[in-house]
Request: fold
Amino acid sequence: MSIVYVDGKWLPKEQAMVSVFDHGLLYGDGVFEGIRVYEGKIFRLRAHIERLFDSAKAIWLTIPISIDDMMGLHLEGVKRSGLPDAYIRTIVTRGVGDLGLDPRKCKDPTVIIIVDRIALWPEERYAQGLSVVTASTPTPHRESLSPRVKSLNYLPHILAKIEGIVANADEVIMLDAAGFVAEGSGTNLFVVRRGELYTPAVHSGILRGVTRDTVIELALAAKIPVHETTLNRFDVYTADEVFFTGSGAELIHARSVDGRVIGAGGAGKLTASLRETFRKLVRSA
Reply:
């Protein structure tokens, strides 16, 4: 069953609530993580929690729980839920304050852990691939809000997602302020060309995804060259394969981008191999 931790209490989702004065709601002032559970085991838990704490520190927010205790709460939540395969959404907000912006008015951060299920796309989409369009909404400038901070401010990505919905596409590619390829609406992006992997570099203005890092590790272990570099839409259109990664999405390929068929339109050998290896890893970790 779904279960939610809110500031020291485990509750059914129907009873889980936060104050309307919480600055996470009022201003998107907070950070979060999305974490997967496979066969009762949490995948890369420490990596996610350490990134959560890094994000919080970057926005001058002190999480009132140690990293080890936070990990323990996640293990407890999975056990309480009884879900063998689940998705965890961990949120830390600035907490309850007044209607002003001053974070000093928020006495205590709000800590929320949601254990539930997720299915971004049906299984047949993983076989068919995604239809993708480029969104006109850019990612936030990296000096305005660092993409390394996984913040609650996701409105640009939601606006990009809306563009995809209006275009009847499954997913979008977001560009950065300079027009270079950045990421999906909530995913990292890879292209394959002549048996080698290319992905936007972290310093170029993307979130460093845990699944992204895992895929890079798997590729390098398989002797597949990986290039973290600058990409533009030409690189995507002419790629042999294109795929997205994320905790919710895992690995899923694009069959077309802006009307251009990618490769033969299928998953491609390298994408299919990495997906199979990834799925074996998460269930054996």
In short: The chain has a mean pLDDT of 96. The CA atoms of residues 61 and 94 lie 7 Å apart.
